Amino acid sequence: MLTPPVDVTFTQFADRVGVPLWALKESMRLVGEKYGTDSMGAIDIPLIDEATWSGELEDVLGGTFGVVADLQHFGDRWFAGRSANQAWTAHLDGFRARGAFVGLLSNLPPSWERHRRFMIDDSHFDGIVLSHAVGSRKPDPEIFELAAKRAGLEPHQCVLVDDMEKNVTGAVAAGWQAVHFHDADQAARQVSRLLAAAVPLAG
């Protein structure tokens, strides 16, 4: 939610590197499957570093789909031209002003950390839990349990705001409340209703 929708970024990235979008996504799926996870799991935890992952994507693209591509420095090119969602950042600051605990819970490779900090600094959050730092990722229950403990809250007192349905489902399964993000104002209205009901939040 702090960046443009992932589908938009996927399309822009595929155009930038000259790879058909379907081939890029399928190659990511196949590499993830090799490591027993989904498309990004291998570098989110991480099981391998970004350069190795990018090389394996290139191998699958070429060997399986006949697409020659240079995907090195993937993160630098993924974040090129991306800007923070200022509307959502403003809502987060508003929630904190109303007394809510606002945390960042993100699936993020270690090599992408500098991009995340460039887009939005840590001062906007009361706590930060990143997949690469804790060895678990959304929608795994372990990361929700850890995030709740770090916030000093019970799971039912926490709410995840996320634009991926599988993460929303995972949060609910872990005992959290959840808001499926479609746009900043829609999500803010739903979170505001929870605040009005005096539910302590971790987002």
UniProtKB/TrEMBL annotation:
It comes from the Bacteria. Keywords: Hydrolase. One of its GO terms (molecular function) is hydrolase activity. SUPFAM superfamilies: HAD-like. Pfam families: Hydrolase. NCBIfam families: HAD-SF-IA-v1, HAD-SF-IA-v3. PANTHER family: ALPHA-D-GLUCOSE 1-PHOSPHATE PHOSPHATASE, FLAVIN MONONUCLEOTIDE HYDROLASE 1, CHLOROPLATIC. This is HAD-IA family hydrolase.
